[in-house]
Q: What sequence folds into this?
């Protein structure tokens, strides 16, 4: 569809929007989707459409929310534009297209929280964003962010392979500028590596 795009986000805060129809004729050996600069890397890719809001999250605990219209559509070979400004030792680690549900954020030491998406006001792209979670010595760096409904569950996985499945309803809802609560108890030397949403399934469908 003409109003659908693919949005790319890279580790250094670059975003790139390309019309979905630009990928309608793939080749067996692949086609160029984005020009990645030396030292950068692709973090996430999402489908979006006219009117969507985008959020980028950095390991510093900051996040930015901006309109997709702030990013002009570019050809497949382009490098993109600045989505969020991060420090030299900081990286983007998550992107989401704003839908219904709270923002769920987790840190490497196993802490996290839910925050209402409305607490993140729309800004122009390219700024430093606002605090989404405090990256204190207790928390460590931010490692993941997603949107989830109260009826969903999330799966947490640690560096050493520990898996924990938790109902979203059991996670405290807190404001942006807070540290959060324990999501997963980790052994010494272990760290949280990521989280994934498990969508609620109606009993009738099981």
A:
């Amino acid at each position: 569809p003409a109003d659908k795009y693919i949005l790319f986000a890279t580790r250094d805060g670059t975003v790139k929007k390309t019309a979905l129809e630009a990928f309608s004729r793939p080749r067996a050996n692949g086609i160029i989707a984005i020009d990645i600069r030396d030292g950068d890397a692709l973090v996430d890719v999402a489908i979006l459409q006219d009117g969507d809001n985008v959020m980028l999250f950095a390991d510093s605990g900051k996040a930015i929310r901006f309109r997709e219209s702030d990013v002009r559509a570019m050809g497949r070979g382009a490098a993109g534009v600045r989505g969020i400004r991060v420090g030299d030792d900081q990286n983007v680690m998550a992107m989401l297209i704003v839908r219904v549900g709270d923002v769920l954020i987790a840190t490497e030491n196993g802490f996290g929280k839910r925050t209402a998406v409305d607490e993140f006001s729309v800004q122009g792209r390219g700024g430093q964003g606002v605090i989404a979670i405090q990256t204190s010595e207790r928390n460590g760096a931010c490692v993941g962010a997603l949107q989830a409904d109260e009826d969903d569950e999330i799966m947490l996985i640690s560096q050493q392979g520990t898996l924990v499945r938790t109902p979203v309803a059991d996670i405290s809802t807190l404001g942006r500028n807070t540290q959060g609560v324990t999501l997963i108890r980790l052994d010494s030397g272990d760290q949280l590596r990521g989280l994934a949403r498990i969508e609620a399934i109606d009993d009738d469908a099981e």
Summary: The two ends are 33 Å apart (CA to CA). The longest strand covers residues 42-49.
